[in-house]
Specification:
alpha/beta; binds iron/sulfur cluster; two-stranded antiparallel sheet; 10-stranded mixed beta sheet; TIM Barrel; single chain; 2 domains
Length: 489
């Protein structure tokens, strides 16, 4: 990374950071240097020899994130504490710093540790959305105690050198234990940067003020489209509350993003210019996550999923938005190349999921487990007990053999990366062979539902067939062409 940026990050002085941020030309210069350095490091150096288009996909996303942060700083939409945390913790610790703990782990176990965890501390939610993957509602009381979450946070830093945490739910802002909440957790772990998925309806002045002061949490607020679509799935009046939350967050200088579930009936809208302009230009969202509806959780159904043809269209539009509209928008499935495929089960640089009961699943959309962290702790284990379990090891082996550790020309199609949604036959086999158990009733039903299995297997095959030409021509083809020896004249 560029020495100019490194030297800034090394400065502990909030005053210096603020003066750079406040100076438009100096800030523009620093961000331009950052952009060039990222391109050089990711695309030109390409340290792991991945296909160039894979590296370009990563570069565009990071470039766009930098652009959005720059824009928010220009508009004075970021508080001084958030600036400090974003630079020191997010950039300094998550992205740039050499991490001796990570290296030690790799030497001991032969692979790099996960970079983060997804934790859902509570199942409770004030909404009751159609098809919620977590089956949450106001009636749910299951939650993790603060001390267990605190221990998880300490361990992931000590064992893996992880400084990034994703929080989901249930509605995480409703989590309370022993008088403490999610902002108390962030304050206690100020060397971590938190991405918190929230429905956004509980954010008021008091919460926003605390978020601005703590500086290391960014809320990703769920929308389903514009007002009509959001209210149809989440409840009447929810969209108005979300707009109010955006306003409060802007006023207090807390950067936020959006999270949207792509379904058959909203997929065109969420990739339209109208949608992008509204959330990113008008409302000031810094980033967006697209989660294609996954048939798990309450009243799961394959009927809500985007069709294979819609998924292909979605991929093309996402590529356009990222390259040409320059916004950070990542799709948990279609952006597979940018993450080198599936990142579940604690893959190097990836994560696993711990829910409100302590159940440890490969990811939020793979609802099966062999370990519960509370039992692991009772039996003297730690996070590595889960990470090294046969269930997770088997999934990581599949990731390696499918694409992650394959030579470039043999890499499996990373536009269909999903260990469960796109490769269900293999997932079901892994679940049965390793004795993994469903984490809830819908997951138990799905496992014995023959129609479900048939439908998902067919889905994966069709998406693969539709996207294989892109994978072959745009990702792998140019690498093969480089090796072609010109014919003698
Ligand atoms: S299993 Fe699927 S949803 Fe989960 S991390 Fe892998 S690709 Fe993403």
């Amino acid at each position: 990374m560029n020495t100019a940026i490194k030297s800034i990050i090394k400065q502990p002085s909030l005053g210096l950071i603020n003066s750079i941020v406040a100076n438009d030309s100096l800030r523009e210069w620093v961000f331009k240097l950052g952009d060039k350095a990222i391109y050089k490091a990711i695309v030109e150096k390409n340290p792991y020899g991945r296909p160039v288009k894979v590296q370009e996909d990563k570069y565009y996303l990071l470039r766009n994130l930098l652009n959005s942060i720059n824009k928010a700083l220009k508009n004075k939409n970021i508080s001084p504490e958030v600036q400090h945390s974003a630079i020191n913790t997010f950039l300094g610790k998550v992205f740039l710093a050499e991490n001796p703990t990570t290296k030690l782990f790799e030497q001991k176990y032969g692979f790099e540790p996960p970079s983060f965890l997804l934790i859902s501390p509570t199942k409770r939610c004030n909404l009751n959305c159609i098809g919620c993957y977590a089956s949450s509602s106001s009636k749910n009381a299951e939650h993790l105690d603060f001390e267990t979450v605190n221990r998880i946070m300490n361990e992931k830093r000590e064992l893996w050198g992880s400084h990034f945490t994703v929080i989901s739910g249930g509605e995480p802002t409703l989590w309370r234990d022993n008088g403490k909440d999610i902002i108390d957790l962030a304050a206690k772990h100020d060397d971590n940067y938190f991405l918190m998925f929230t429905n956004g309806t509980t954010i008021n002045d008091k919460t926003a003020k605390r978020l601005a002061e703590v500086g290391n949490i960014t809320p990703a607020i769920s929308v389903e489209g514009l007002e009509k679509e959001t209210d149809a799935r989440r409840g009447k009046g929810v969209h108005k509350k979300i707009l109010k939350s955006f306003e409060i967050l802007r006023n207090y200088g807390v950067p936020f993003g959006i999270s949207v579930t792509a379904m058959k009936n909203n997929v065109n809208l969420i990739t339209s210019d109208e949608f992008i302009d509204f959330y990113f230009e008008e409302q000031g969202a810094i980033y967006g996550w697209i989660f294609q509806y996954m048939p798990i959780g309450r009243s799961y159904t394959l009927d809500l999923m985007v069709t294979p043809e819609q998924r292909l269209e979605l991929y093309k539009k996402e590529q356009y938005m990222v390259k040409n509209r320059k916004i950070f928008i990542a799709d948990f499935w279609n952006s597979g190349p940018a993450s080198n495929g599936c990142i579940a089960a604690g893959r190097s640089g990836g994560y696993f999921y711990i829910d409100w009961n302590g159940n440890c699943s490969p990811c939020a959309f793979y609802p099966y487990k062999t370990h519960n962290i509370k039992e692991v702790y009772k039996n003297g284990g730690d996070l590595n007990t889960v990470l090294l379990s046969p269930f997770f090891t088997s999934i990581r082996k599949w990731q390696d053999d499918y694409s992650y550790r394959k030579p470039t020309f043999e890499m499996g199609n990373q536009i269909v990366p999903c260990a469960i949604k796109d490769h269900y036959e293999n997932a079901k086999k892994t679940i049965i062979e390793t004795g993994a158990q469903p984490i809830d009733q819908p997951a138990a039903l799905a496992l014995t539902d023959e129609e479900y299995a048939k439908g998902l297997i067919k889905y994966g095959e069709e998406v693969d067939k539709l996207t294989q030409p892109i994978w072959e021509q745009e990702y792998i083809g140019p690498e093969k062409a480089k090796l072609r020896i010109p014919k003698a004249s």
